[in-house]
Amino acid sequence: MPVTQLAVAALASNPVQQPEMPVLQVRGLEKSFKKRQVLKSLDWSVPGGRVIGLLGRNGAGKTTLLRCLLGLSPIDGGSIELFGAPMLEPGGERMHRIGFVPQTFDLFPWMKVRAYLDFTAAFYARWNHELVERLLTNWELDVKQKIGELSQGQRQKLAIVRAIAPDPDLLVLDEPVASLDPQARRAFMSELLALMRAPGKTVIFSTHITADLERADADIALLRDGRIQFMRPLAELRERLKRVVFSRAEGWSQAPVVAGVLKSHVQGEQAVLLVEDPVVESLHALAASEHANLHIETPTLEDLFVELA
Ligand SMILES: Nc1ncnc2c1ncn2[C@@H]1O[C@H](COP(=O)(O)OP(=O)(O)OP(=O)(O)O)[C@@H](O)[C@H]1O
Q1: Residue (of 300, 66, 93, 37) closest to 204 by Cα position
Q2: How many angstroms separate the CA atoms of 305 and 286, rounded?
Q3: Is the pLDDT of residue 197 over 90?
Q4: Cα–ligand 1 centroid distance for 3 (angstroms)
Q5: CB contact set of 187 (below 8 Å; sequence gap of 6+)
Q6: E-strand spans in 150-283?
Q7: Residue 211: what pLDDT?
Q8: Ligand 1 pocket residue status of 13, Cβ below 6 Å
Q9: Where are any strands of DSSP class E within 10-155?
Q10: Which stretches make up the ABC transporter domain (predicted)?
């Protein structure tokens, strides 16, 4: 088994504790586009009350997975349960409990922002008018402008306002901040976290911007090879996974073997290892016997993503 697969297998063997009933339960999900199999017998259990960052490389299948979960794309096999009942098709009462921000928002280009929000509000029993007004002001959205005339970033802001306003129990966002400038991203993240302070709310969002996941203190779910490879709290990943660097002038023919190594490579004078729960005394002993200097670092999420995705 390649080392990266070993790494993610090791992480998967210690799954996140799930104190609440799952909001989402996926079993054996299969999805192909013609001969391209994107999701392969994917299992995923998402507990309530968490912020979950869905990470994966370009083309890993994040958008496909999110669309399948919401019934927006037909599945080839397996089952999906939302709030404890099978997800068969979009619509119905349960959909009022779900907010979705798609990767691109290009509906109703002829409608003005105010008319669009009023029209949408009419479909929902719960619609937070006060929050809508606050976000419109904070994010400088002109309610008299037509949606088709908004910039990409402004459209994304509108999509976020529209998704949050009905006070959903589950908020699903597909790269929601890709077009937002850093200021708007920060504002969005703090709104999102404020929303999450209410008990039982769950957020799933895919992103490439690892700093946003760090700000949200999210659980990280890694999608690779058509499956969720592991889901673990970011704080736990950062606490337990360390980047261990041995360096010496003569370099290395291969990286030293240490307990808990998930991945390693040699780079000039350095042997760089990603190690779970390293035993510091053993590493120091090994460094001394190999006449090497030792550095133990806490990896950034970006480092982890590069190593594991
Ligand atoms: N409608 C479609 N028809 C055919 N292939 C598709 C379709 N939608 C997605 N795919 C393929 O499925 C795979 C997964 O795509 P998807 O958009 O889900 O990935 P992603 O992880 O969201 O990527 P990114 O990070 O680039 O947004 C890709 O190989 C893509 O080409």
Answers
A1: 66
A2: 27
A3: no
A4: 26
A5: 138, 139
A6: 170-174, 202-206, 219-224, 227-233, 241-247, 261-267, 270-276
A7: 77
A8: no
A9: 22-33, 36-47, 51-55, 77-82, 85-86, 98-101
A10: 24-250
Q: Is 60 in the pocket of ligand 1 (CB under 6 A)?
A: yes
For the chain, give every domain's residue range.
3-236, 238-308
CA–centroid distance, 64 to ligand 1, in Å, is 6
- Find the mean pLDDT for residues 269-278: 94
Q: What are phi and psi of 191, to 5 degrees?
A: -60, -45
Instruction: Spell out the CATH class of 3-236.
Output: alpha beta
State residue 64's pLDDT score: 96
CATH number listed for the domain at residues 238-308: 3.30.70
Give CA–CA dist 17/232, Å, rounded: 9
Nearest-atom number in ligand 1 for the CA of 73 is 1
Token pair recorded at residue 188 = 């969005």
Average pLDDT (245-253) is: 96
- The pLDDT mean for the chain works out to 87
Whether 153 has a pLDDT exceeding 90, the answer reads no
Residue 16's pLDDT band (boundaries 50, 70, 90)?
Answer: very low
**How far, in Å, CA of 307 to CA of 262, rounded?**
9
Mean predicted confidence (pLDDT) in 51-76: 92
| Residue 128: DSSP 8-state | -
One-letter amino acid identity for 246?
Answer: F
